Amino acid sequence: MLPRSTLQHPPEQVALVPQSTGGRGEWYVCNREKLCESLQAVFVQSHLDQGTQIFLNNSIEKSGWLFIQLYHSFVSSVFSLFMSRTSINGLLGRGSMFVFSPDQFQRLLKINPDWKTHRLLDLGAGDGEVTKIMSPHFEEIYATELSETMIWQLQKKKYRVLGINEWQNTGFQYDVISCLNLLDRCDQPLTLLKDIRSVLEPTRGRVILALVLPFHPYVENVGLMGPSLAQPDAEALGAASRLQDDSRHTARMSNATNTG
């Protein structure tokens, strides 16, 4: 496994965050020479577009709300005794994930703004903010989530929440399945991938995976003694070992693949 510093480098054309963000950010590109040829051919480089800038601006603005931040800090300290960080974020309505903007999503899947298909399944959807980016392109939207407070957030957005042992047994298939920053947080990642394949529409189905590398699996667990990080089982550790030994997985990236 190559260290991240060898995969990302300050590019010749660095997109600096505009003055509205205080000039504190840079846009990185992947060093494609460190990828194998098969990945070089399909890699899609994202750029700092309007949707990304809006997310950054909102995040910076919220970070300056002193009293709200103090309140969140207090609530987090108290509730962390018996709730996971994910559930606390769901309760407070914070911690939204950003993976791609609407334009980046369309570019990744090579679709136009008017493209529409039948079913989307977003696994580990969190508060549904990324689901909302994808949702205009689907007639039916399904999601899964373990955290009760995040389920509450998803239901407020009118998404159909399926149980973690339910989505594989609905009797129908999905046109797009997204699994974003989830494989390293579940105890059976290989089983998850097999289940995804089994319910994906076989002729036109697409899977969108987002994964942070190096692969370090951990699982949130809330028990009688409060929240903790459970030890990953043998399957998760085996997946980590495979990723470390596979030179094809040498970029921190999100990539859409057609499995048909």
TrEMBL record:
<feature type="region of interest" description="Disordered">
    <location>
        <begin position="241"/>
        <end position="260"/>
    </location>
</feature>
<keyword id="KW-0808">Transferase</keyword>
<dbReference type="Pfam" id="PF05219">
    <property type="entry name" value="DREV"/>
</dbReference>
<dbReference type="InterPro" id="IPR029063">
    <property type="entry name" value="SAM-dependent_MTases_sf"/>
</dbReference>
<dbReference type="GO" id="GO:0106370">
    <property type="term" value="F:protein-L-histidine N-pros-methyltransferase activity"/>
</dbReference>
<keyword id="KW-0489">Methyltransferase</keyword>
<protein>
    <submittedName>
        <fullName>Methyltransferase-like protein 9</fullName>
    </submittedName>
</protein>
<dbReference type="GO" id="GO:0032259">
    <property type="term" value="P:methylation"/>
</dbReference>
<dbReference type="InterPro" id="IPR007884">
    <property type="entry name" value="METL9"/>
</dbReference>
